[in-house]
Amino acid sequence: MNTNRIAEIGLLVGEPARAAMLLALMDGRALTAGELAHAAGVTPQSASAHLARLTQAGLLAMERQGRHRYHRLASPEVARLLETVMQVASLAPQPVRPPLTGPRDAAMRRARTCYDHMAGELGVALADALQARGHVELDDGAGLVTPAGLDFLHGLGLTGESLSGASGARALCRPCLDWSERRPHIAGRLGAALCSHFLDSHLVRRIGGSRALEITPTGQAYLRERFDIRTF
Fold first, then answer.
1. What is the pTM for the complete model shown?
2. Residues 112 and 203 in one domain
3. pLDDT digits (tens, 9 = 90+) for 163-212
4. What are residue 137's DSSP bridge partners?
5. CB 204 within 8 A of CB 216
6. CA 131 – CA 168 distance, rounded (Å)
7. Handedness of CA 87, 93, 96, 99 (dihedral sign)
8. Containing domain of residue 189, as a range?
9. Ranges for the HTH arsR-type domain (predicted)?
10. Tally of domains in the chain
11. Do residues 87 and 129 both lie within one domain?
């Protein structure tokens, strides 16, 4: 293990402006330098310097589209690193009189994206429902989709390579410890497929430019009928 590399990543992630940029990309989208500068509250020149360092370190990937350059998290592993840091940060002692949280904070806890999968109360509820029905098994950082689970997911319309079980660099199913709920939601290819399905089917929709998701009336009915989830 290269301790210098660990220290380098820690310094990069630990700088407030860079941390704000990385968190702005946790919904899986690619953003321009100007959008990330706004998210971090820095000048475009400062943002460009920060983005260059993050890209050089392999934490970000840059794509060109016409005259624009778009930046995104380099991999699911980077998103997992950030989610873990958020989990550790949430364990820090809180002030005696913590500040009141606004509507966006409540919405983020209710449902949000964690890179390309769903988190918050919604993500954990889906993980619980799939486990209760014997469709997935989650344990100590590993996950398994059962044959009955594959049949259930195919019935939802989730088919193709994302759920084929073929070997690949990314796990089909794994637990991701939710920083707000302190319990696992589902990540991996299954988590990404579920998130895409919910967004494409208008079961959830993004709230503004944040990671927060709003569950639509159609989504509430879908959760009751397909997952027996009645808390939303």
1. 0.76
2. yes
3. 665 545 678 899 988 888 888 999 999 999 999 999 999 999 999 878 89
4. 144
5. yes
6. 24
7. negative
8. 103-227
9. 1-93
10. 2
11. no
